[in-house]
Amino acid sequence: MKSSDTETYRIIGCAMKAHTQLGHGFLEAVYQEALEVELLKAKIPYKRECELPIYYDGIAMNIRYRVDFICFDNTIVELKALEKLTPAHDSQVLNYLKASKIKKGLLLNFGSKSLQQ
Asked: pLDDT tens across 86-110, in order?
């Protein structure tokens, strides 16, 4: 297993622990807090609610994206708490990747009976 695969596995493991403990039905903010606890326990380096600048024609715009987590400085982690993910949610993560120039992103949905990724 490559190190990046190991990192992804560890992040998903933390998310699964949070989902198993809480179940589904909470607001996204609750899962963010729970995931943060699990990331700390697992000693996974992360930044929470990071602002990502958006550039147009080489100029930084005033608007910023706010991503839920960046783990290991190389993985964007976006949380949702919805019944069902849509293509718009995938697009959101793709836009975060483009803005940050990070190559890897996880979209985790805590809103169903099983954690969705």
From this structure: 999 999 999 999 988 899 999 999 9
Residue type, 93: V
Per the structure block, which two tokens stand in for 109? Answer: 């949905």
Kindly state the tokens that stand for 4: 């990046």
Asked if 115 and 109 touch (Cβ cutoff 8 Å), the reply is yes
- What global pTM score does this model have? 0.90
For the domain made up of 3-109, give the CATH fold. Answer: Endonuclease; Chain A (3.40.960)
Using the predicted structure, report yes or no on whether residue 2 has a pLDDT greater than 70.
no
Q: 28-41 vs 3-22: helix axis angle to the nearest 10?
A: 130
Antiparallel, parallel or unpaired: β 59-71 and 75-80: antiparallel
